[in-house]
Amino acid sequence: MVSPVTVVTDGACSANGRDASRGGWAAILTDADGNERVLTGGEAPSTNNRMELTAALEGLAAAPEGGDVRLVTDSTYLAHAISKGWLDGWQRRGWKTASKDPVANQDLWRRMIAELARHRRVTTEVVKGHAGHDANERADRLAQEAATRDWPAAPRDDAPPAAAPTAPPSRDDGQLGFF
Question: Average of pLDDT values for 10-31?
Fold first, then answer.
């Protein structure tokens, strides 16, 4: 049986959504034995929501297939899309929100569907950001640091699904543990 994994994520973006924006993300994966793996990356320009989603995507992609994953995030946008059926609704409505607007970050949400399907069960837990949750604070620091690096240009949200980009570069901190 595959050991359950906790994935703590965070995203950061300076000048959020502007041409000069710089985004960073971090995912900290921990198994039941306490083994850990840290991933970081980023893109520019970007948005905070793209970085939150990318952190979760990269964490889910690094988690062993077929097991249970607990996704810990300070993004209610991310958690509710997964746990409250928003993602399913967007798909049913042809990638439109309940108010008929196009769903933002469709390229990432489409990847999310595939990543969620790789695991037996993915649960979400929302923690309040900047409120003393140690792992979230650490992920925040790593994401902030990643946002200061030079990253390739961000893929555009309006790219056709067939042209959806591959994951942005990621970096391990060398603590490969169980992965």
Answer: 94
Question: β-strand 68-73 against 121-126: which pairing, if any?
Answer: parallel
> 115 is written with which tokens?
């990543």
Selecting among 33, 34, 94, 130, the annotated active-site residue is 130
pLDDT tens by residue, 122-153: 999 999 887 888 999 999 999 999 999 987 77
User: Is residue 157 flagged as an active site residue?
Assistant: no
Fold of the CATH domain 5-152 = Nucleotidyltransferase; domain 5 (3.30.420)
Among 4, 50, 2, residue whose Cα is nearest residue 146: 50
The mean pLDDT value for 89-101 works out to 95
| 10 given a catalytic annotation | yes
Burial bucket for residue 71 (CB in 10 Å: 0-12, 13-18, 19+): buried
> Which member of 58, 74, 107, 115 is catalytic?
74
Residue whose pair of structure tokens reads 């620091």 in the numeric block: 141
Q: What is the pTM of this model?
A: 0.85
What pLDDT band is residue 154 in, cutting at 50, 70 and 90? low
* Structural domain boundaries in the chain: 5-152
Q: Is 74 a catalytic residue?
A: yes
DSSP state, residue 174:
S
